[in-house]
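Office hours follow-up: a student asked to see two folded examples consecutively, so here they are.
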Amino acid sequence: MNETAQRGLLMSDSACRKGRLMEKLGRSILLLITSLSVFAVLFIFIYIAKDAFPFIKEMGLSRFFGSAQWYPSMDPPSFGAMAIVYGTLMVTVGAIIVAVPLGVAAAICLSDVLPFEVRQVVKPIIEMLAAIPSVAFGFFALVVFAPVLQNHGGALLSTILWVIGLPLGVLLVMVLSEMTASRVQEVRRPSVRLMGHIIFGVALFYLLWRGGACLWNVHIASGTNALNVSFILGMMALPTIVSVAEDSLQAVGRDLREGSYALGATRAETMVRVILPAASSGIASAIILGIMRAFGETMVVWMASGNTARIPSPWYNFLAPVRTLTASIAGDMGEAARGTMRYHVLFVMAFFLLVVSFIMNMLSQWAVDRQRKRWGK
């Protein structure tokens, strides 16, 4: 009886060979599916590099990056893209200035301040921003935000300063007060904390009041400018930064927080000295992904940047119109005859965008791997 049952559990040689064959076949199919995306990336790299090479061979990269004269339709044409590259970097930096403080602060609030039930409602709403089509953001920037910026720019900038600066400033005041109080004896901490709130709060109010008064008198000639695009790109990058940074803060775990509280640290000290350093790699990865979102955006910058291939004067003037690489590719591709230098220079722009995006993606992956190694995951 036992011998019959044992024979039933054993597989015949043909069944074993069939099983191994099916296993290898399944592995091969999965490997092929996984490799498709790799082949697609390689194909895009090769295709864009192939069409960019004639311009690099004929004109050289020094004329592309070293000149700000962009006149592709003149005779003779000029293909200096320095102003366009600068415009791309300018709106990307502007988007970072808008998105990073708001995104990191929102991630901290979701992770360690709001109750779990509220977080479950707020986070999906923030992530819905990522589902809005970029053309809808472009319409908003062109039809709504640009006229408001042009007609009431000073008042709007002053209001934005208060709306953004006040909550961030209050958070900074609380952190500075807690850090100051932690340096004195336990019995004196409440009074030192209160003094910190008063002193830092008055300083915050004065800075916001002075900044708001200066911005109130600003006149904006055109609403389609670098500031408009930077603000909208910042809003578009916000859900990426909030979601990834909040996940990184959550991944730190309760044991580290409870250990810090057990040693007598306050919530602010725990956040500044324990949680944020522990999640720094993940937050850096979130910021890099947000930068990539802003760097490669096309529709919004095409519709609302003003499309002027000129370096603003002064160079930090965000109220001037600019032009970006993506907008140039989208705008000029329909007018460039195939095989001309004007056609090939657009592929040089695309190749530059591709290389920068690839490097940023590698940096993001490196940051994630570093955090995993740090926590032994």
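And the second, which I mentioned at the end of office hours:
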Amino acid sequence: MTSISANNKSPKKIPTFLLPWLDVLAIGTWGILMIKYWLTGKLYLLIHPDFFWLVIAGGFGLLALSVFKTVELLSQLKKKPSNLPAPNVQHLSVFPPGIGSSLLLITALLGLAIEPQVFSSQTALDRGITDFVSLTRSQPQSFRSNTRPEDRSIIDWVRTLNVYPEPDAYTGQKVKVQGFVIHPPNYSEEYIIIARFILTCCAADAYPVGLPVKLAQNRSAYPSDTWLEIEGEMITTNLGNKRQLTIEAQTLTNIPKPKNPYDY
């Protein structure tokens, strides 16, 4: 009987009077996290700029709500104990009272402590970069044939190839693009890929696009994830038993990682 009684001990619960404060703290911390991402420019790493206003409005809205609830709770504390607010009654709850707010608070605190990072070349390899053209999900909204080749970005080149994929059509055209370096394991040592991640909504749906680059030297001089500006001209090469439009590099310049490393 003694062992049965010991096993029936219920786990410790969060004191009832703390539950409203835990809700307020979780709401306020999430508001701070959203506004911090906006002020520090980290939103560029997480979401498409078209949706920035939603995050900013949400952050200020959560902060305002947390301040309102704090004032309300403090005013009620000054009243008689019988007038103190009753804990929120959850008619349908997966977790015991307070657990959901605790998880939200812990998640927000981790967000404040851990800086978002730019996707790396390894992420691009993991997401599959065997065929950049077919992986391109962005549909060309316009075909600007009058755009000078050297003014095209990587995504402009990929969109152009989607419209007319014959590599020989671009042979000899000037090119000047910026991106990060990828070392594809199936390419020889004188080839790299210059790439950018494309965001259509948020970081969860980001995908890489890029162009092969033929170097005049071994690619070990340009480590993976290095940001480069590459100037050269277009040629056609056979890579992986496939004819591909390739940049024959003439100059490669190291550049700092841009504030907004993604394209759209």
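Two things to take away from it. Residues 59 and 90 are 25 Å apart (CA to CA). The two ends are 67 Å apart (CA to CA).
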